[in-house]
Amino acid sequence: MSRILNIGSINIDYVYSVPHFVRGGETLSAESRQIFPGGKGMNQSVALARSGGSVTHAGMIGDDGKYLLDVLQEAGVDTGLVAIGNEPTGHAIIQVNGEGQNSILLFPGANQNLAPDFIDRVLAPFRKDDILVLQNEVNCVGYAIEAAKAKGMIVVFNPSPFGSEIESYPLEMVDVWLLNEIEGEALTGMTSAGDIVNTMASIYPNAIIVLTLGAEGVLCHSRGNELRIDGIKVQAVDTTAAGDTFTGYFVGCLAQGIDIYEALKLANIAASISVSRVGAAVSIPTWDEVASKVS
Ligand code: RIB
What we know:
Elements: E1 3-7, E2 11-17, E3 32-38, H1 40-50, E4 54-61, H2 67-75, E5 78-84, E6 90-96, E7 102-107, H3 116-123, E8 131-134, H4 141-150, E9 154-157, E10 176-180, H5 181-188, H6 193-203, E11 208-212, E12 218-222, E13 225-229, H7 242-255, H8 260-274, H9 287-291
Parallel strand pairs: 1-4, 1-8, 2-6, 4-5, 8-9, 9-10, 10-11
Antiparallel strand pairs: 2-3, 6-7, 11-12, 12-13
Alpha-D-ribofuranose (RIB) binds at residues 9, 11, 13, 38-40, 43, 92, 104, 106, 137, 240-241, 244, 280.
C-alpha cells in the first residue's frame, strides 16, 4: 500500500440552516447553527483514512483548533505533522438551504501560514511512489508540488477553491486531478463535462482526470480511456464535503491497489452517503457503510 501525505486545511465549520442564501444588503435569521470539524484538507484526510488508506496529515491550526486533532486521530489519521501556530484556526461560515446546497465563506487563518521549510520538513519522511494530496486552501501549494515531484512522489491535486494563483503552479507535474465543473470551467474555459475532460486530457496527457458531476455522477479520463459512473439518487440534506469524500475515497482506494473503475464506484457511493448527512468530516461514511452499498 502506498503511503499518503495530505498537506491541507483544517477548519472549524459554522453551519447555518437558512431558507435561502443571504442576498447583498439583506439581513436573514438562520433557522439553526451547528459547529462541525471541516476544511477540505481535513475532510479528505478523514475520507482517506476511512477508505483504509495510510494517511498522514500536515497543516497548521491555532490553539483553538487542538480538539480537531482528536477528530483526525479517531478517524485513523496520523497528525504528527500538524503544527500549532500563532494565528487562529481557519473557519468557514456555511449556509445550507432547504435543498441541501451550500454557500461557503472562508477565513483561512493558520491554513495560510505554511512556509517552504515546513513543506520540506513534512515531505522528508516520504519517498518515491508515496502519494501527496493537495487542495487549494493552504499556501505553498506550488512549492509542495515541485518538491514532491523532485522526490518521485505521485501528486494528486484538487484545485478547490479555485483562484488565479493556481495558474502559477507547476500544473504539468500533477498526476491525478480531481475537479468539479466550476473548477473544470476555470481551468479549460469549457462548460460541458465532455469538453472539460477532453481539454484537460489534451493539456495533461499523462494525468488521470476525474470530473465529479454532483448528482450526475463522475467522468474520468485515464490513459486514453474514458470512464463514466452514473450518479446515485439520494435525498440531499447537506452537500458539504461530498467532493472531499469522493477525493479521499478515490485516492485511498487507488493507494491500496484497487483498480480505477472500482475506486470511482466506491468513491461515488461514499459521496452519495455523505450528502445524506449534515456536516463535513462527520458526514463521511466508514468503509463498512460504503461496502454494504456495493451491488
Ligand atoms: O469542502 C467543504 C469544506 O470547505 C468545508 O468543510 C469548509 O471548511 C470548506 O473548507
